[in-house]
Design a protein that fits this description.
Length: 307
């Protein structure tokens, strides 16, 4: 190799690598985060009429702030090791996992984000956990009150509508330890000592709140949640309804940790028979006039169920 002035480079070649020895890599030097202080007020207003104001902020305190959140990576697969890519199925699988293997999981409560992350307070017994979970789908059918459905049921016998499993799916669940997040990062941030764990810790308590909403049967859309209450629905036409709900987030403030609740709105497909939705959506009066190609594109955003 020659230098720019045409002279040979006098640098010696690098030494040969010794077989079986892996060279050490120098760690990147991390600069310590400087404590941040909140902007100080010069004073309070003195003119005008004082009023009482109700806000949508609620003060929050953490119990056992010296504990740790444990972050686990979630890998969901079908029985044939195919990755689960269907959205919405993860929560059912994790809920069934918690019910089935409570003892093996040290009776820990989960905070699951619905995708790839799961959090617990305290560690699970194993660093890597593998389980098999069977989830049942249910349908509604008429069944004799004193027996199972069949052609030999006597005519006119007492029949009642019951929920019975018609399909089961087997999942493989892997929970692998990913990180340890101190709860104290939140209290430190409130004192102006923000660390690399601050946003992670606040994200965990946001997920805990979402988990609570999911257990109540709410529709979750990012940080918003919507109760299944007809009084919250507004018919927008075209088979679509507007749904009123709430948006939640935790914030670090001068007064401490605060939960902010704000109103939110989303649009959903009106629940009901698919044919009725298509007639309303495409503004036609007969099923023979339905544009099925357009329906196939629309079906991608819907979640039909069979009864």
């Amino acid at each position: 190799m020659e230098s720019h002035n045409g002279e040979a480079n006098d640098l010696p070649p690098p030494p040969p690598l010794i077989a079986g020895v892996e060279p050490l890599k120098a760690d990147e030097t991390k600069m310590p985060l400087k404590p941040r202080s909140l902007v100080q007020r010069n004073g309070f207003g003195r003119k005008g009429q004082p009023i009482k104001l109700i806000t949508n902020h609620f003060k929050v305190s953490l119990v056992n702030a010296e504990e740790f959140f444990y972050h686990y990576y979630v890998n969901l697969k079908y029985e044939d090791d195919t990755p689960v890519d269907r959205k919405g199925s993860g929560r059912k699988v994790i809920e069934k996992l918690q019910q089935t293997y409570a003892a093996e999981l040290a009776n820990k409560d989960f905070a699951y984000d619905g995708e790839k992350s799961l959090f617990t307070i305290g560690a699970l017994p194993q660093v890597k956990n593998e389980f098999t979970v069977v989830v049942e789908d249910f349908s509604t059918g008429k069944t004799p009150a004193n027996g199972s459905p069949g052609n030999d049921s006597p005519p006119g016998s007492d029949r009642k509508r019951v929920r019975r499993p018609y399909n089961t799916k087997t999942y493989k669940v892997e929970l692998s330890f990913a990180a340890k997040i101190p709860m104290s990062a939140i209290s430190q941030a409130l004192r102006g000592q923000e660390s690399e764990h601050t946003q992670e810790a606040i994200r965990v308590i946001d997920i805990i709140l979402r988990q609570h909403s999911a257990k109540q049967g709410c529709l979750l859309v990012r940080q918003s949640f919507f109760h299944n209450n007809p009084s919250n629905f507004v018919d927008l036409g075209g088979g679509v309804v507007g749904c009123r709900g709430f948006h939640s987030s935790f914030r670090a403030t001068q007064s401490g940790l605060s939960l902010n609740i704000d109103v939110s709105t989303t649009m959903i497909v009106k629940p009901g028979p698919v044919i009725d939705f298509l007639l309303d959506n495409q503004k036609v009066g007969d099923p023979s006039m339905i544009d099925w190609a357009k329906f196939c594109n629309l079906l991608y955003f819907c979640r039909p169920s069979v009864h």
